[in-house]
Amino acid sequence: MIVAVPAPPEGAPPDAGNRPIWYRLEDENGGRDPFARHCADWSYGLRTPTADCIGFVLWCSGVDRYQPTYHGSRDGWLNCISLLDDADGAQTWCRPVLYSAALPGDWLVTDEHIGIIVRPACYLPDHTMTSDHLVVDCSPRHGRSMAVNTGYPWSSKCRVVRYTRYQPSTGMAPRAAG
After folding, report:
1. Residue 63 and residue 57: Cα distance in Å, rounded?
2. Which of 24, 62, 118, 154 is the most exposed place for a label (fewest CB within 10 A)?
3. pTM for the whole thing?
4. Which has the closest alpha carbon to 135: 154, 110, 111?
């Protein structure tokens, strides 16, 4: 297993950076700089890189979690509830997608958690599901030793939403000119 450990910030204690990214659900944690080399903020006296689920998903999607000009349900902060409210209303950030129509890169979200679909559910021609969505998320669930991992939907309340600026891959290589 490859574990990415972000470099500690300047001024961090000598023992900083000895752990992979930990989950921390406190304040707005991670995801403030979509161009950073990792999704985490530094916590616990600059010793540990930490992120929460929304910080991880928005960072992966290239979105800053704070949008000062967005006046959704959480005063500019994007979180699970504000994304669901947006999908059901203005659709500035995301729009609802049928569970069976999900694509890699779509978000699987409830009012308490969010992950990114990396392999959509598989269906037979009669619409019988043979395997559920596989998601990557930032969560301490299932006794994980680190926060960023893969798993399956965590709730029957999961909804699929698509980032409005997402451009799915066609899976085809670009054609040569000529």
Report:
1. 9
2. 62
3. 0.80
4. 154
